[in-house]
Write a structure and sequence with these properties.
The chain is 34% helix and 25% strand. With 618 residues, it is an alpha+beta fold. It starts with 19 loop residues before the first helix and ends with a helix.
Length: 618
């Protein structure tokens, strides 16, 4: 680019010899010799970074597919196949033992629910005076306050707010005569099961629990609920201390004289009842997740006499073929990309981005060492229908693979999968805790602070013996957030024991005096996690050696990044030097041009004088 002349007349005095055109040509020649080579290197570097990213991305995909095949979880997938009445749906988590079960449902768990009489308006008022009444559920009493301005919709909101989500109240448009709308208030327990049965009570006196007013056994007739007259013998109180009357809804036959528009109980809270392999089981919910670890049952309907659902939990192999296919596909994509990036055409002289770059050209060789290998028991990929062509591409014979999976699954699993082995550590207390003194302080395990406050005496009614104190300490450790892999117990001598699982480390810190009370000391014990076995473990390790933290390609990528920075700085420096050089040259040439112009002017003057003198002497 030409230097900005700002309309300068550079070159006029020198006969256009010391001109901007000359400076531009000189600068262009220097730029071509000194800057252009750096720009070419920078562009080559950027191309390599881009193509390297493509290769490392393909390697990461291939590694993920390989990891799927080496992971234990791939071989622990389970199917739960149900036949029979379909009264129960079953799902099984990975690793659940293969098993059969027979399930027969006698009773579904239900909500406790009531509906009010119908109202013409959802925003019409319910009561003709201020009232407070109670709803009991789950062993707890809740007070609902309403007044003469409370609408049907407002009453639903008050019940929802007062009962801490244990009771759900809503308005339903149930319809009525043509052109009319009828609304009912539906009150239902949030959870199923007999423990969630609801009951109502009148507050005859008292202002506890937020009660603002009182009520009678006829107050809720405003909702269409008619109750048996409460037994007034003795004093009955709710959990807040109010004097109350517990209410029981009358049977439909007892309120025929009240007409058709009355409230009623829609359903009674009941537990689910079913048989598991002939054993009677009761649960409060129709979703049962605590019968068999890792197995979830959903009860759908009640079985008729003689009906049942039979469930067979088996090994799921459907996804394994897909995992193999994904692995083959990702490997072939990787190899095709590497071949393109490292190729060289001797006729045209065209070369791939990484032609001759050892870090890239060696990838295929390293991977093929594993792929062409044989396991310790003489098995190779070919035994499972996976072969390598002369072009270095994997092919898959699905029929051979399916046969191995279906008939020799254990061989398949031992060839591909790896086993994770944990070395767990345990911290042992060196003395029994003295429970005749206060145990108060902070115990830190793996960076988690655990506040322990176990007084030697307790003013509560619960027995505060050594067993209770031990349980309090174990509970404090067990409930500490983030310590799911640490368990606490006491040995037969009463010493505290902390045990790690899953190969986790155990690091104990805290005040030395407090730790001494617990029989502990500051220490760190190192657990260990090791992956062993599996033909593809070597392949996984090889890929980690390429794209891991200190991998070959990771280092190569860092070198490219550093080189790009260095080349960019060198180019900017040279460009600045050239700009300075030719700016200075222009300034000097401008001065020279001025001097030449003056000399030329003076010469012209002298020549004029000589010519004038010559003419005068003629």
């Amino acid at each position: 680019m030409a230097i900005n002349t700002e309309k300068s007349q550079l070159g006029v005095g020198s006969g256009n010899i010391l001109s901007w055109d000359t400076i531009d040509k000189l600068k262009e020649a220097d730029t071509k010799a000194l800057v252009k080579p750096l720009e070419t290197k920078i562009q080559d570097n950027l191309t390599k970074q881009k193509d390297l990213t493509a290769i490392t991305t393909l390697l990461s995909t291939f590694k993920a597919n390989v990891s799927n095949l080496t992971s234990d979880n791939t071989y622990l997938r389970r199917d739960a196949n149900a036949t029979g009445s379909g009264s129960v749906s079953v799902t099984a988590n990975a690793g659940v033992a293969e098993q059969n079960m027979s399930l027969s449902v006698q009773q579904l768990a239900t909500h406790d629910s009531y509906q009010s009489k119908t109202f013409d308006l959802r925003n019409g008022t319910v009561f003709d005076k201020d009232v407070s009444f109670g709803i009991s559920i789950g062993g707890k009493d809740y007070v609902i306050n309403a007044d003469s301005s409370t609408t049907l919709e407002g009453l639903a909101e008050k019940i929802n707010e007062a009962t801490e989500g244990k009771v759900q109240a809503k308005i339903l448009n149930v319809g009525g005569a043509a052109g009319a709308e009828s609304y009912r208030l539906v009150i239902q327990s949030a959870e199923t099961g007999s423990d969630n049965a609801m009951s109502f009570y009148a507050i005859t006196s008292g202002t506890s629990g937020g009660a603002s007013h009182t009520s009678t056994d006829s107050t809720l007739e405003a909702l269409g609920f008619y109750f048996d007259k409460a037994n007034t013998t003795g004093t009955n109180t709710d959990s807040h201390g109010n004097t109350i009357q517990r209410l029981t809804l009358k049977k439909p036959d007892d309120i025929k004289d009240k007409g058709d528009n009355v409230g009623s109980q829609l359903d009674v809270a009941k537990d689910a009842k079913f048989k598991y392999n002939g054993i009677d089981i009761t649960r409060s919910s129709n979703k049962v997740e605590d019968l068999i670890l890792g197995v979830s049952l959903t009860l759908n309907k009640v079985d008729k006499a003689g009906e049942s659902t039979n469930v067979n939990i088996t090994q799921n192999t459907d996804g394994i073929l897909e995992d193999i296919q994904a692995m083959v596909k990702s490997y072939n994509s990787l190899i095709n990309n590497i071949n393109e990036a490292t190729k060289y055409d001797s006729e045209t002289g065209l070369a791939g981005t990484f032609q001759g770059v050892r870090e890239i050209t060696s990838i295929t060789t390293e991977l093929n060492k594993i792929i062409n290998g044989v396991s310790k028991d003489g098995k190779s990929l070919a035994d499972f229908g996976i072969t390598l062509t002369k072009d270095g591409i994997l092919t898959l014979d699905s029929s051979v693979l399916n046969d191995m999976i279906n008939t020799k699954f254990d061989e398949f699993k031992s060839f591909f999968s790896s086993e994770t082995k944990f070395t767990n550590v345990t911290a042992f207390g060196d003395k029994k805790i003295d429970w005749n003194e206060d145990i108060k302080g902070t115990l830190t395990i793996n960076g988690v602070d655990i506040t322990i406050d176990i007084p030697k005496t307790n003013t509560g009614t619960t027995p505060w013996d050594e067993k209770a104190k031990k349980n309090a300490l174990l509970k404090a450790i067990a409930n500490a957030s983030g310590l799911s892999d640490i368990s606490a117990s006491f040995d037969k001598d009463g010493k505290l024991v902390l045990k790690g699982s899953g190969g986790i480390d155990i690091e104990i810190k805290g005040n030395s005096d407090f730790l001494t009370k617990l029989g502990l000391k500051e220490q760190k014990l190192d657990g260990k996690t090791e992956i062993i076995g599996g033909f593809f473990k070597g392949l996984n390790d090889t890929i980690n050696g390429l794209i891991g933290t200190n991998g070959t390609l990771t280092t190569y990528e860092e070198n490219l990044t550093n080189s790009h920075k260095s080349l960019t700085e060198s180019k900017e420096k040279r460009q600045k030097e050239l700009d300075t050089k030719y700016t200075t040259m222009a300034e000097k040439w401008s001065q020279y041009d001025t001097i030449i112009a003056k000399l030329e002017s003076q010469m012209n003057t002298v020549n004029g004088m000589i010519e004038a003198a010559r003419n005068a002497n003629k």
